[in-house]
Amino acid sequence: MFFILSKILLFLIKPIVWIFVLLVLALATKRAKRKKQYLILSLIVFFFFSNDFIIGKILNSYEAGYPKIQQYDVGIVLGGFSGLNKRNNEIAFSGASDRLFQTITLYKKGQIKQILLSSGSANLIDKEVKEADLAVKYLKLIGIPDSAILIENQSRNTIENARYSLALIEKKNPQAKILVITSAWHIPRAKLIFDKQTKRKIEYYPTDFRGRTEFDLSDFIIPSASALGTWELLFKEWIGLIVDRYRG
Asked: How big is the chain by its Cα radius of gyration, in Å?
């Protein structure tokens, strides 16, 4: 029920929805003063949440850094980086695909011995397509051997990623050194969840950074549609972080 509710209520954290509601209120009210207030507020909300500089600086301070370089027995790559291309029934990579590509790089460098693909289906309707199953086909296609691949294809969220992945590793290699590979902005929440479910030391490797250290003039003054989407992503993470902190 919680999983379904979280999907239904996601629209509440979209800044674009807040802007739309303020504009509707401005159009609906008959009082000139209130109409002006709604319009000004909608502009303020729009320019704040569409500003690349503001979201860039916030993300840059929030995203995790790299761990000390060492070897690990298992690299757990968290899902959310791909889906099914129904035109050719092959894997289609999303904006978070750097999670998988960095995992492959770590394996090729010898820093991880095995890749654990942790992702089932987060789709409320189509639960047949498992992301881990799509990804394993891709890994085999590029020459990663079966012996280097572990599959966990039942999880629907980060809590289940941790629960099922750690159970699988406990069964296969209880003494394994573990590296969790996920987006830099997702690591604070992933670390909270994984650390709650095990006492063993786990390291975290950040990918697809969204924060920026350099900006140009356009970032300060030109509204950005991607900034609106990034705020939505960040709000989702922060809400999840608060909920997961108090959830067992």
From this structure: 21
CA distances from 64 to 72, 102, 182, 203, 207 (A): 19, 15, 10, 11, 9
Write the CA distances from 83 to 95, 134, 165, 203, 207, integer angstroms.
11, 8, 20, 27, 18
pLDDT tens, position by position, 54-94 = 999 999 999 988 998 789 999 999 999 998 898 998 899 99
Query: Which tens digit of pLDDT belongs to each residue from 32-60?
Result: 999 999 999 999 999 999 999 999 999 99
How far the first Cα of the chain sits from its last, in Å, is 16
According to DSSP, the β-strands at 149-152 and 202-207 are unpaired
Residue 124 has pLDDT above 90, yes or no: no
> Is the distance from CB of 210 to CB of 227 less than 8 angstroms?
no
User: pTM of the prediction?
Assistant: 0.86
User: Beta-carbon neighbour count of residue 41 at 10 Å?
Assistant: 16
Percent of the chain with pLDDT over 70: 93
Q: What letters, b where the CB count within 10 A reaches 16 and e where it falls short, cover 186-210?
A: bbebbbebbeeeeeeebbbbbbbbb
